[in-house]
């Protein structure tokens, strides 16, 4: 069978105040175009459809249209919730999804069978997929109890919880030696390289699990959460497909892509990365005002590190030179190093300290200083 693996769309993401709706529409159109060209039997979307748990109506329209377009290619479509998604809200859409021929799983269910999706390709190949939405630490123990684990067994790490869940579901799902066994989940695997836009609280070691949690009889594990496309070493093929669009400036080195996989019950998975058009790029540029004035940046969104001493109006000068600058920083090498002692700071007023802070950060202007002084006088 052939499957396409995508994840981490983050529709609705606003970058430093800049909406990117048109870029997101273009990126998902590119994903759909790959599906039309490749004609996979199955498309797996491994979580983070949205960038936040309360997506706007426009964001929901973008996502539902993209999922419907993927289904219209003839592929089966499986979608799980990521840590940015509202699992309960996604589950509320299951009636729509079922009618559209899309399998949607937002939260961990009380029944293992609810996480087992089965199908047969047009060529007659049977497949089984364990679809496990993002599982937070606080719900991990409860999820174990759903599957009748003892209290003693629940006193273990997040990785232990997850492995027991997967093993329990796999014992029910992976029983046919002639079927292709798949898993999709949204989590962090130890050794994975972060892309820059992941939510830090859900990538720290408390949430990271070893690749050994996935049963060895699995033919392919389709993961979401890390935004950089990469394969990991494990008892079975484990892969992040990456995001189809750079989410923030920490991801400028990532190549937007989807992953194509060809596999059978008797042969190993053949994995192929399919790059996607970059669209409007993200760039980090550095230099003095004179150097920045010479740059050709096209239509890219910019993060600017300016090599000038902090002063009032510097930000505005940079913005005038580079109107598409979304983030402007003063090079740390240009910041004052002779910070006053704690005792010296204690003798100064909050107004003076705030003015010093603005100057050091290159944000100093009379209006901001006057507003702070006015507010401080009202509350002091």
Tell me the span between the first and last alpha carbons: 70 Å
How much helicity do the residues have? 25-40%
What's the β-strand tally? 19
Rg value: 25 Å
Number of domains: 2
Return the CATH class of the largest domain: Alpha Beta
| CATH fold-level label of the largest domain | Purple Acid Phosphatase, chain A, domain 2
**Count of alpha/pi helices:** 12
Summary tags:
Purple Acid Phosphatase, chain A, domain 2, nuclease, 23% strand, 380 residues, six-stranded mixed beta sheet, 19 strands, Nuclease SbcCD subunit D, elongated, endonuclease, 2 domains, alpha/beta
Short note summarizing the structure:
With 380 residues, the protein is an alpha/beta fold.
Structural write-up:
There is one protein chain. This protein has 380 residues and is an alpha/beta fold. It folds into 2 domains: 2-275, Purple Acid Phosphatase, chain A, domain 2, CATH 3.60.21.10; 282-379, no CATH class. Helix content is 32%, strand content 23%. The protein contains 12 helices and 19 strands. It has helices at 21-38, 57-72, 87-91, 94-100, 137-146, 151-154, 158-173, 289-293, 314-321, 342-346, 350-361, 366-379, and strands spanning 2-6, 14-15, 18-19, 42-45, 76-80, 102-105, 116-120, 126-132, 180-186, 188-189, 208-209, 220-224, 230-232, 238-240, 257-262, 270-275, 282-287, 301-306, 325-330. The strands form 5 sheets. It has a 6-stranded mixed sheet with strand order 6-5-4-1-15-16. Strand 15 and strand 16 (270-275) form a beta hairpin. The model has no long low-confidence stretch (mean pLDDT 88).
